Amino acid sequence: MKKVIIFTFFAAALYACSGGEGKKETASAKPATPAVDGEKIYKTYCVTCHGIAGDMGASGAFNLQTSVLPLEERINVITNGRKAMTPFKDLLSEAKIKAVAEYVEKLRH
Ligand code: HEC
User: Which pTM was predicted?
Assistant: First the structure.
Protein backbone atom coordinates (compact mmCIF):
# COMPACT_ATOMS: atom_id res chain seq x y z
CA MET A 1 0.00 0.00 0.00
CA LYS A 2 2.80 2.37 0.92
CA LYS A 3 4.45 1.77 -2.44
CA VAL A 4 1.31 2.75 -4.26
CA ILE A 5 1.11 6.02 -2.35
CA ILE A 6 4.74 6.78 -3.07
CA PHE A 7 4.27 5.96 -6.71
CA THR A 8 1.21 8.15 -6.92
CA PHE A 9 3.15 10.98 -5.30
CA PHE A 10 6.00 10.68 -7.79
CA ALA A 11 3.65 10.47 -10.71
CA ALA A 12 1.85 13.59 -9.51
CA ALA A 13 5.12 15.42 -8.91
CA LEU A 14 6.39 14.45 -12.35
CA TYR A 15 3.17 15.60 -13.94
CA ALA A 16 3.25 18.88 -12.05
CA CYS A 17 6.86 19.53 -13.06
CA SER A 18 6.41 18.80 -16.74
CA GLY A 19 3.26 20.92 -16.76
CA GLY A 20 5.12 23.77 -15.09
CA GLU A 21 8.00 23.61 -17.53
CA GLY A 22 5.66 23.80 -20.47
CA LYS A 23 4.00 26.88 -19.08
CA LYS A 24 7.33 28.57 -18.38
CA GLU A 25 8.46 28.11 -21.96
CA THR A 26 5.40 29.72 -23.47
CA ALA A 27 5.55 32.53 -20.91
CA SER A 28 9.18 33.40 -21.64
CA ALA A 29 8.62 33.16 -25.37
CA LYS A 30 5.76 35.65 -25.37
CA PRO A 31 7.07 38.98 -24.02
CA ALA A 32 9.87 39.39 -26.57
CA THR A 33 10.03 43.09 -25.69
CA PRO A 34 9.96 43.32 -21.90
CA ALA A 35 8.86 46.65 -20.57
CA VAL A 36 12.02 48.72 -20.23
CA ASP A 37 11.53 51.95 -18.34
CA GLY A 38 13.42 54.70 -20.16
CA GLU A 39 12.77 57.20 -17.38
CA LYS A 40 14.25 54.89 -14.77
CA ILE A 41 17.34 54.29 -16.91
CA TYR A 42 17.74 58.04 -17.45
CA LYS A 43 17.50 58.75 -13.73
CA THR A 44 20.07 56.05 -13.04
CA TYR A 45 22.71 56.76 -15.68
CA CYS A 46 22.19 60.18 -17.21
CA VAL A 47 21.22 62.66 -14.47
CA THR A 48 24.79 62.91 -13.18
CA CYS A 49 25.67 64.98 -16.23
CA HIS A 50 22.40 65.98 -17.88
CA GLY A 51 20.31 66.53 -14.73
CA ILE A 52 16.73 65.47 -14.03
CA ALA A 53 15.35 68.04 -16.49
CA GLY A 54 18.10 67.52 -19.06
CA ASP A 55 19.58 71.02 -18.77
CA MET A 56 22.15 70.66 -16.00
CA GLY A 57 25.11 70.58 -18.35
CA ALA A 58 27.71 69.04 -16.02
CA SER A 59 31.00 68.14 -17.75
CA GLY A 60 29.79 70.17 -20.72
CA ALA A 61 26.82 67.86 -21.19
CA PHE A 62 24.51 68.88 -23.98
CA ASN A 63 21.21 70.51 -22.99
CA LEU A 64 18.75 67.79 -23.89
CA GLN A 65 15.83 70.23 -23.76
CA THR A 66 17.14 71.96 -26.85
CA SER A 67 18.52 68.88 -28.56
CA VAL A 68 17.09 68.27 -32.00
CA LEU A 69 19.03 65.10 -32.67
CA PRO A 70 16.93 62.43 -34.38
CA LEU A 71 16.33 59.13 -32.56
CA GLU A 72 18.89 57.19 -34.62
CA GLU A 73 21.62 59.71 -33.78
CA ARG A 74 20.66 59.78 -30.11
CA ILE A 75 20.97 56.01 -30.00
CA ASN A 76 24.37 56.38 -31.63
CA VAL A 77 25.58 59.00 -29.10
CA ILE A 78 24.32 56.96 -26.14
CA THR A 79 25.77 53.72 -27.52
CA ASN A 80 29.20 54.99 -28.54
CA GLY A 81 29.57 58.18 -26.51
CA ARG A 82 30.71 61.60 -27.75
CA LYS A 83 33.54 63.69 -26.30
CA ALA A 84 32.99 63.82 -22.51
CA MET A 85 29.97 61.56 -22.69
CA THR A 86 30.79 57.97 -21.91
CA PRO A 87 29.58 55.16 -24.16
CA PHE A 88 26.82 53.01 -22.73
CA LYS A 89 27.10 49.98 -24.97
CA ASP A 90 28.72 47.89 -22.24
CA LEU A 91 26.29 49.09 -19.56
CA LEU A 92 22.94 48.99 -21.30
CA SER A 93 21.31 46.58 -23.74
CA GLU A 94 20.13 47.79 -27.13
CA ALA A 95 16.53 47.81 -25.92
CA LYS A 96 17.45 49.92 -22.90
CA ILE A 97 19.43 52.40 -25.00
CA LYS A 98 16.46 52.77 -27.32
CA ALA A 99 14.10 53.24 -24.36
CA VAL A 100 16.26 55.96 -22.80
CA ALA A 101 16.77 57.62 -26.20
CA GLU A 102 13.00 57.79 -26.54
CA TYR A 103 12.65 59.16 -23.02
CA VAL A 104 15.14 61.98 -23.76
CA GLU A 105 12.63 63.32 -26.28
CA LYS A 106 10.16 63.97 -23.44
CA LEU A 107 12.62 66.44 -21.90
CA ARG A 108 12.40 68.73 -24.91
CA HIS A 109 10.51 71.97 -24.77
C1 HEC B 1 29.78 61.84 -18.09
C2 HEC B 1 28.68 62.74 -18.29
C3 HEC B 1 27.51 62.25 -19.16
C4 HEC B 1 26.65 61.21 -18.90
C5 HEC B 1 26.66 60.26 -17.72
C6 HEC B 1 25.70 61.20 -19.98
N7 HEC B 1 25.98 62.18 -20.87
FE8 HEC B 1 24.95 62.58 -22.56
N9 HEC B 1 26.31 64.02 -23.07
C10 HEC B 1 27.38 64.39 -22.28
C11 HEC B 1 28.17 65.39 -23.00
C12 HEC B 1 29.43 66.06 -22.48
C13 HEC B 1 27.52 65.57 -24.24
C14 HEC B 1 27.96 66.51 -25.37
C15 HEC B 1 28.95 65.77 -26.24
C16 HEC B 1 29.53 66.65 -27.31
O17 HEC B 1 29.67 67.84 -27.07
O18 HEC B 1 29.83 66.13 -28.38
C19 HEC B 1 26.36 64.71 -24.25
C20 HEC B 1 25.47 64.60 -25.31
C21 HEC B 1 24.33 63.82 -25.31
C22 HEC B 1 23.38 63.75 -26.37
C23 HEC B 1 23.47 64.48 -27.71
C24 HEC B 1 22.59 65.70 -27.72
C25 HEC B 1 22.68 66.43 -29.01
O26 HEC B 1 21.66 67.01 -29.42
O27 HEC B 1 23.75 66.47 -29.64
C28 HEC B 1 22.39 62.89 -25.99
C29 HEC B 1 21.16 62.49 -26.77
C30 HEC B 1 22.75 62.41 -24.67
N31 HEC B 1 23.92 63.01 -24.28
C32 HEC B 1 22.01 61.53 -23.94
C33 HEC B 1 22.44 60.92 -22.78
C34 HEC B 1 21.77 59.82 -22.15
C35 HEC B 1 20.44 59.25 -22.60
C36 HEC B 1 22.51 59.45 -21.08
C37 HEC B 1 22.27 58.30 -20.12
C38 HEC B 1 22.19 56.97 -20.72
C39 HEC B 1 23.67 60.34 -21.04
N40 HEC B 1 23.58 61.20 -22.09
C41 HEC B 1 24.65 60.29 -20.08
C42 HEC B 1 27.70 63.92 -21.03
C43 HEC B 1 27.09 62.85 -20.41
Answer: 0.77
- CA angle centred on 97, ends 95 and 98, rounded to 5°: 65
Q: How many domains does the chain have?
A: 2
Cβ–Cβ < 8 Å for 72, 102: no
Residue 50 near ligand 1, beta carbon < 6 Å: yes
46-100 pLDDT, tens digit each: 999 999 999 999 999 999 999 999 999 999 999 999 999 999 999 999 999 999 9
Minimal-distance CA residue to ligand 1 atom 13 = 61
Same domain, 51 and 92: yes
Expressed as residue numbers, the domain containing 58 is: 38-105
Residue 35 pLDDT: 81
Exposed e or buried b per residue across 53-78, where buried means at least 16 C-beta atoms within 10 angstroms of its C-beta: ebebeeeebbbbeebeeeeeebbebb
Choosing from 40, 55, 62 the residue with most ligand 1 atoms within 8 A of its CB, the one to mutate for a pocket test is: 62
